[in-house]
Write a structure and sequence with these properties.
One of its GO terms (biological process) is 'de novo' pyrimidine nucleobase biosynthetic process. It is a single chain. By secondary structure, the chain is of the alpha/beta class. The protein has one domain: TIM Barrel (Alpha-Beta Barrel), CATH 3.20.20. It contains 12 helices and 10 strands. Strands 2-1-10-7-6-5-4-3 form an 8-stranded parallel β-sheet. Strands 8-9 form a two-stranded antiparallel sheet. Helix 2 packs parallel to helix 3, helix 4 packs parallel to helix 5 and helix 8 runs parallel beside helix 9. The two termini are 25 Å apart. 49% of the residues are buried. Bound molecules: orotidine-5'-monophosphate. The site of orotidine-5'-monophosphate (OMP) has 19 residues, from strand 10 and helix 10.
Length: 281
């Protein structure tokens, strides 16, 4: 089954397009997690337990798993999410020259989808694109303030670069496995891009901590696949660290009951986001 078919089934089963971003910043983990073997996995495991009913997908960002122990935590996290029946999109923003990018693409043997960077052109993405069962999300219009620096540059045709990227991604979609990454902080660009590439599902980050537009994310981010709206709207810190408001969990004297309340807040945040997004579906 292809990634987008699996995602469609998951969205239908959970009635959710929420992507829960697993970005376990070591400086923000609740106190007791620091003492555990693989603290990032210990944290993610509790977050997955609390949120999986509302998660269409988990999106760990590779930056939070640097180092040998981090990579081990990532592998455990992916296996645990799969055990709950949730697909995993690795946010790695990869691409490189041929032999290097082939190595990068080997990660798709154990994750279901990945984010890639189009800057090096088609050949740098080919090993990802060749995996028709995996999802390949091409960075198109990113959510950060500097996203406009290059992506909005006008080409000789008058169109901004991000629109050319979208048109190319559409051409690269021979295997039906390509999506775009478009930030919720750029609602006008989301609308433009949906017109430009009506069939590509979007991963829309930037909701929650970055203050993006949830309505635009849903209105333009999703595409119909056999009667199901397919696409992903991601929140990372807004979900996984929601417990910080409920519990001061940074000290050494945090109890198991505190941790229970902390992770429950993450579950509630995922559920709330699902409800908000579903209002616009
Ligand atoms: O590729 C991404 O997922 C991504 C693209 C983008 O334009 N903006 C963006 O925030 N992201 C990622 O989405 C997540 C957003 O995290 P929060 O701001 O905590 O919800 C991080 O992992 C970012 O790296």
């Amino acid at each position: 089954m292809s990634f987008f078919e699996e995602l469609r089934d998951r969205i239908e089963a959970t009635d959710s397009v929420v992507s829960v971003g697993l970005d376990p910043d070591p400086n923000r983990l609740p106190g007791p997690m620091a003492d555990r073997d693989l603290p990032r996995f210990a944290f993610n495991r509790r977050i997955i337990d609390a949120t999986h009913e509302h998660a269409a997908c988990y999106k760990p960002n590779a930056a939070f798993y640097e180092g040998a122990e981090g990579w081990r935590a990532l592998r455990e996290t992916v296996a645990y999410a799969h055990g709950k029946g949730v697909p995993v999109l690795l946010d790695a923003k990869r691409a490189d020259i041929g032999n290097t990018t082939r190595q990068y693409a080997s990660v798709l043997e154990w994750v279901d989808a990945i984010t890639v960077n189009p800057y090096l052109g088609r050949d740098s993405l080919q090993p990802f694109l060749d995996r028709h069962d995996s999802g390949v999300f091409v960075l198109c219009r990113t959510s950060n303030p500097g996203g406009a620096d290059l992506q909005d540059l006008e080409l000789e045709t008058g169109e901004p670069l991000y629109r050319r990227v979208a048109a190319l991604a559409d051409l690269w979609n021979e295997g039906g496995n390509v999506g775009l990454v478009v930030g919720a902080t750029a609602p006008e660009e989301l609308e433009t891009l949906r017109r430009e590439v009506p069939d590509l599902p979007f991963l829309v980050p930037g909701i929650g901590a970055q203050g993006g537009d949830a309505e635009a994310a849903v209105e333009h981010g999703l595409v119909d696949r056999d009667g199901v709206d397919v696409g992903l709207v991601n929140s990372s810190r807004g979900i996984i660290f929601a417990g910080e408001d409920a519990v001061n969990a940074t000290g050494a004297d945090v109890t198991e009951a505190d941790l229970d309340r902390y992770v429950k807040a993450a579950g509630d945040a995922a559920k709330r986001l699902k409800r908000v997004l579903n209002r616009y579906r």
